[in-house]
Structures are given as structure tokens and as C-alpha cells.
Amino acid sequence: MEESPSPALDDELRARMAEAAVQAARAANYLNAGTIEFLLDGEGSFYFLEVNARLQVEHPVTELVTGVDLVKEQLRVAAGEALSFAQEDVEPRGAAIECRISAEDPANNFYPATGTISRLRLPSGPGVRFDGGIAQGYEVPIYYDPLIAKLIVWAEDRPLAIERMRRALNEFVLEGVPTTIPFHRWVMASEAFRSGVFDTSFVESEFRPEAARAEGLEQAAAVLCTLLTHFRERTAPASAEPSADGASAGDPWRLAARREGVGSE
């Protein structure tokens, strides 16, 4: 998962890191979209990691906080055109979080999975973006990266973005194949993540497989409660007076049995 802006950077450190990235690109005479990565230590020093001569999977968080269509700009530059904006025009606003939805089992050491998506309901609403090409009935193959979709949200600040992502993940229904959705739900509720103080050992030190299993059970219980409530509301009569046989007229199970002719009074 990715987020922007990083809670670990202040304005001064972010400016120094950006300048280092620009110098590296100029030194290589690089032209077009690319990503320069650094690692940050606990003392505030950063170290060069790698250059990717392309957009990365996390480019949507940058697009949402800057309002710049990076894919469009990449194509413009490749076609020999100039950028449609200058650096001073870029004014980051708000916070964005991206969750990579992968066909992996977080309860089994994130083991890759294949299968057919038997049920799919996508989240929606203000500030919610879904990037993916999956559909109900889609077969997740063995031939590619297990990433099957990306869920991205934007909000006015990081706490609101976290809450918006929690809501979107709770709306996200994908059945038939294990995915990282339960893991992301756990992350959004994690105090370590919400505090913004964590490092690359976060999953190893904080996550437990049973947490993903518990998320799955909680979702199943919530669905069951919703179905039961809906059933009761549809079958409850206007009056709850006892019937002649002593059963409550509002008992949905007895009413259903009577309609289906099941059981005996």
C-alpha cells in the first residue's frame, strides 16, 4: 500500500529529497516520466535506492494530491510535446492512500492464489477511485503478478483518508479468491499505522495471520446479521398479537414455516 504525502517527511526534508531526485534525473539526461526511490532512516537521512524509468503502481496517489494526470503527461512527452504545467503550478492538497488488492492469502503468509471471482461488489462514493479490470466471473490466472486491482481514496487530511479507506474496504466484496482486503482492513485499524510511526518491519512485527481470519469472520457475521434483519422486516406483520396456537404472530421463522408448509404446530 502507498500514501501521499508521507507522514515521515516535513517540508524541509521533502524539498531536499525532491532536489536529489531532480539532480539524479538531470545527471542521466533522463526525459519522460520516471520514479526515483529513496529509503529514509530513523535519523532523517535518506539513501538512494533505485530509478524506475516508468510510472509506478502507486502513481494514483500522486495524481489525486496534485490533480495532474501523469499518464496523459507521459504520453505528451513521448509524443514530443511539452508538459502542460510548470513545477510551480504543482500544489499538493489533501492526502491519498492506495491499497493494492492482490490475489494472496494474508492468513497464509500472503501465498498467491488463483480461482474465479464468484461475487464482486465495488466500493464507491466521493473521493473513492478504483483501478482494475476484474469482473464477476473473472478467472485469476497463474501467469502474472497477483495484483488484480487498486483501491485509492482522497480526503482533506490523513485521518479522514484513513476513515474513507476503511469505509471503502468494508464496502468491497470479492468472493471466490483469497485477497489482501482483510489485511488492508486490519492496517487501517492499526494504531501503529494510524500514528504514522512505523518502518519496513511493520508487517513482520505487527501483523498476525489470525487478524486476517478474524476480519473474514467479522465480515461474514455482519452479512448474516444484515440478512436476518432484512428477513425479519419483510416477514413481520403489522400486529404482533399472539396467534391461536400461542406463537407470536411476529415470529418470522414460524411464519416462513407456515408459508412453506414445513414442520408441525
Helix content: 25-40%
CATH homologous group name of the largest domain: ATP-grasp fold, B domain
Question: Structural class, please?
Answer: alpha+beta
Number of helices: 9
CATH architecture of the largest domain: 2-Layer Sandwich
- What top-tier CATH class of the largest domain fits best? Alpha Beta
Main sheet makeup: 4 strands, antiparallel
Order the strands across the largest sheet as they lie in space. Answer: 1-4-11-9
Distance between the termini: 57 Å
The share of residues in extended strands comes to 15-25%
Order of helices and strands: EHEEHHEEEEEEEEHEHHHHH
The best one-word shape is globular
What is the total domain count? 2
Description:
By secondary structure, the protein is of the alpha+beta class. The chain folds into two domains: about 1-95, D-amino Acid Aminotransferase, Chain A, domain 1, CATH 3.30.470; about 95-205, 2-Layer Sandwich (D-amino Acid Aminotransferase, Chain A, domain 1), CATH 3.30.470. Helices cover about 40% and strands about 20% of the residues. It is built from nine helices and twelve strands. It has helices spanning about 10-25, 60-65, 70-80, 160-170, 180-190, 190-195, 200-205, 210-235, 250-260; strands spanning about 1-5, 35-40, 45-50, 95-100, 105, 110, 115, 120, 130, 140, 145-155, 175. A hairpin with a 5-residue loop joins strand 5 (about 105) and strand 6. Helix 4 (about 160-170) packs antiparallel against helix 5. The radius of gyration is 25 Å and the shape is globular.
